[in-house]
Amino acid sequence: MSLKSDAFPSSSAFDAINSSLQSDDAERKDAVKKGNAVFAFTLKNKGGATESWHIDLKQKGEVCKGEPEKADVTLSLSDDDFGRLASGKIQAQRLFMSGKLKIKGDIMKATKMEPVLKRAQTKAKL
User: Fold this and answer.
1) What's the CATH number where 77 sits?
2) Quick one: DSSP state of residue 48?
3) What is residue 3's three-state secondary structure?
4) What digits encode the pLDDT tens for the residues 33-81?
5) Is the pLDDT of residue 22 over 70?
6) Cα–Cα–Cα angle for 33, 24, 105, rounded to 5 degrees
7) Residue 2 forms part of a structural domain
8) Is 3 domain-assigned?
């Protein structure tokens, strides 16, 4: 099942992240061990619509569409900025400092998301 939404072009990155997690059981277990959190993403497209996805690195090691029951950290940003973040063209800290990335919850957990994005970049060549 694809996680991509046509209204959110960068959402294809969630498929890449999920396939990266599902492709290697040892890597998935390592990501869960290091992440130990549920990361929610709320993206806003150019039309003003919002949609959510979440990455469960607390138990299952998978990506799902929609909001989780309970997120440890929620990242809100534009679809364009998420595309740049997922492809490695910009760092999360820069987006956060410029006010383009809003974080709710445990901000320190948000820093644990970067290795997962980097692994997906190398596997999928985003």
Assistant:
1) 3.30.1050.10
2) S
3) coil
4) 999 999 999 999 999 999 999 999 999 999 999 999 999 999 999 999 9
5) yes
6) 35
7) no
8) no
Within 8 A by CB and 6+ apart from 119, the residues are 20, 27, 31
Hey, what are 124's tokens? 């999928």
**Half-sphere exposure for 77 (CA within 13 Å, toward CB):** 28
Q: How many CB atoms lie within 10 A of CB 109?
A: 19
Q: Which amino acid is at 71?
A: A
pLDDT at 104: 97
Q: For residues 42 and 50, is the Cβ–Cβ distance under 8 A?
A: yes
**3 state DSSP class of 58:** coil
Host domain of residue 50: 9-121
CA 25/CA 43 separation, integer angstroms: 28
**Contact at 8 Å (CB) between 67 and 26?**
no
Q: Tell me 8's DSSP state.
A: B
The answer to whether residue 55 sits within a structural domain is yes
Cα separations (Å) of 64 from 17, 36, 89? 11, 16, 24
